[in-house]
Structures are given as C-alpha cells and as structure tokens.
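Format notes (please read before filing issues)

Several people have asked whether sequences and structure tokens are stored in separate files. They are not. Every record keeps both together, in the order shown below: the sequence lines, then the token lines. Line labels are part of the format and must not be stripped during preprocessing.
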Amino acid sequence: MTASWRFSTLADRHRALGSKLEDWSGMGTAWTYNKDADEEYIAIRTKAGLMDVSGLKKVHITGPHAAHLIDLATTRDQARATVIQMWGELEAAKAQIQAAQEQVKTAEVALNGVGMEARVGMRTTFDVLNAQQALVNAQLTLVTAQHDRVVGSYNLLSAVGRLSPQTLGLPTAIYDPRVHYQQVRDSWGGVRTPDGR
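Then the structure lines:
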C-alpha cells in the first residue's frame, strides 16, 4: 500500500477482521478480507452489508470567495435534487394514470355484471349502488392522477427553468424589462406612472 495520509476510524476493525488495507483516495481502505469470497458474498446477502465511505475525497475550500463557492455548489446540488424529485413525481403520476385507467375498466365491467345479475334477481339494489360507487371512486382516482401529472409536468418545467409563456405558447404579452426601463428611467420615485401620466 502506498503511504496514506488519512485514516479511517474503522481501520483497526478492518485489520482485526483480516483485511490488508489498500490505498483509496489517500486512505487505507478494506477491499477484501482473509476469507473465502463465497463466505463474504453470503454474509453480505444474509446480513447487513456496510460500506466505509470515509475514504471519499474531502475538499477544503479557503480564500475570500470560499463561502460564495460553497453557496454555488449547494445551490447546484439542490437544483439537481429538485429536478430529480420532480422527474420521479411525474413518472409516478404517469404510472398512476395507467393503473387508474385499468381500475376504471375493471369497475365498469363489475358494474355491468352486477347490473345483469340484479336484473335476474341475483343481486340487490344495494349491490348495484356499491358497484356504482366503486366506479365513481375509480374515476376520481383517475382524474386525481391526471391532475397530478399536469401539475408534475409544470413543476418539472419550473425546476429546469423552462416555465415561461414562450415555452407554454401562451397568447400573452411578454414582459420586456428594457421597455419598462425606458418608461421609468427619468421618473422620480412615485412621481410618475409607467404609462407617462
């Protein structure tokens, strides 16, 4: 192993279990143990498999712009996480729509069957009402899932910065800050309105 400059708190435990620590990102890390590979595999599959991630790179940021750089990295990570979350919610809503459509079809078939049985006297009016309620509930689930898909698509557009009248193709006047600046550039605060009166 090359000379490591960082040490894991679990290094002694790894050595006690028979591992020869190997360098990973400047830190001695356990890759294997003095055991049969099949035993290790079975142990991981039947017990808790743990990963010592303390060997991950650590970055120390110093200087006059350190706080700004950390804010930038944090904001970037939050934006990525938001996009991933919104994408997941959109995909879940699409899957929910498919499931709800099948639920509606099933409820319609059940209602038809109960209706036919009621006509020949095998079911009561109460059974028919229950089947109708099941259909209404399925339709409500479908409408809710469709709503969630629409909202999810707008949330995703917002997360990636594309929720705008131009992207949506809305027939509306687009705000132009240059026009507003030209309207108010000579005005004293609160003396004149943007239309010049």
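For reference, the curators noted about this record: The radius of gyration is 32 Å. The chain has two domains: 1-58, 79-184.
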